Every structure is written in C-alpha cells, then in structure tokens.
Amino acid sequence: MNDKENKSRLETVKEFLIVRMKGLLLTGLFVVIPFAVALWMAWWLYDILTVWAIYFAEHIKLPGWDGEETSFWLKHGIRILSLILIIVVLILIGQLAKLTLGKRVIALTQKLLLHLPIVNFIYSTCKQIGDAVRSSSGGMFHQVVLFEYPMKGTYALGFVTNENKESFEVTEKIGCPMVSVFIPTTPNPTSGFLLLIPRENCIFLKMSVAEAMKLIVSVGTVLPGQKVPEE
Asked: Over its length of 231 residues, how does the chain's per-residue pLDDT go in tens digits?
C-alpha cells in the first residue's frame, strides 16, 4: 500500500512539474518574443538606413578601411555617424518646410513628381497616408466605434479613419452618411480591412484608441482601465 502511495505521489509530483515547466516556458516565450521582434525590427531599420554608408566608405577608400577585414567598431561607427547625418538632414528639411522659400521648393517638387508616370501614383498614395497619419492629434485613428459584425447580435471594435462629412460617390449611391472604419485583426493589429458603415449603425465609444488597441492585442483579456496581467 505504501509503494502504491509513493508511486501515486511521484506521478503527481511529475505531472505538477511538467505543468509548471510548460507554464514557465510559455511565460518566458511571451516575455522574450516581443523583445526579440522589437530588436529585430530595430536592427533591420538600422541596417536599411545605414548600409549606404558602408558602400560609400568602400568606394572612397576611407583611411583604415580594409574591406572585409575592417574592424566591427569602425563599420558601426560609420553607420552611427550616417544615422546621425540622416536625423540632422530630416530636421533641416522640417525647418525648411516651415519657411516660405522651403514651402515653394517643396510645392514645386511635388508638382514635378505628380506629373511623372507611375511615380505620381506612388508619391500621391504615400503622401495621402502620411497626411492621414499626421492629421489630428490622435493620429490616423480618430475614434473607437462599436458595430454589429459579422452577424446580427455580435459586435466588433473598429477605428474611425474618416467621418466622410463631405459627400462623395459612395454616400451619394447609398443615400446616407457613411463612416470609414478600419477593423484590425487580433492579435496583430497592423493588418485588417476597411468597412464603410452607415453612421447610424455605429456606436461611438468614449474608450481611447490606446485602450481599444490593448483590448485587441490582448485578445480581450485586458479591459479598458485594467492593468496588464503579469502572467
């Protein structure tokens, strides 16, 4: 009887340890993965923005440059300097854009780009996205709305990207005000799709965009005003 009890206790302990280890492994993954993805994205962006400096150093035969044998610190010193140069140039362009002469130069450049085939489509699309992101203090998303989707009785959260106060072809065809709403996917809100919804079918919420984003990313586990759980 004692042997059976001992075996039962050992099995219980083993099961407990296995479950505990699985829980710790999943917790570790959920902690490490966001950091790893953030670091990878930062490194990718750093490499894309500064790789031109390495090619430049190779072509001008920079003192101390020895091709593949060049030291790690020299290469990344050049990359960091090029990144600082990019930041300075962007600041100067931003300052120039606020001056009358700068505005005229930018407007002239825009007109030139808009008259070039293919380039005009790419430029106008990027400019519209940039203007949408820059407009309003809340960024591209103006407000959080709730509406019935994908069937009656079930509700989805979305972000208003445009209230379409000016009439256009869609509102004229439908015959009522339509709100442009972006529905993000869960748990990756960077993808999603656009819906045009009658304004009367939208429930405008007081919830902030940040709170709604937390709710979506957490797959509904973090409610507005609630702290993110440790595990």
From this structure: 566 666 677 777 777 788 888 888 888 888 888 888 888 888 888 888 888 888 887 777 766 666 666 677 778 888 899 999 999 998 888 888 788 777 888 888 888 887 888 877 787 777 766 665 554 445 567 789 999 998 888 999 999 988 888 888 888 888 888 999 999 888 777 778 899 999 999 999 988 888 888 888 878 877 876 554 444
Residue 70 located in a structural domain = yes
- Host domain of residue 187: 143-217
State the virtual CA torsion across 218, 221, 227, 231 in degrees, nearest 10.
Answer: -80
**What is the pTM assigned to this prediction?**
0.48
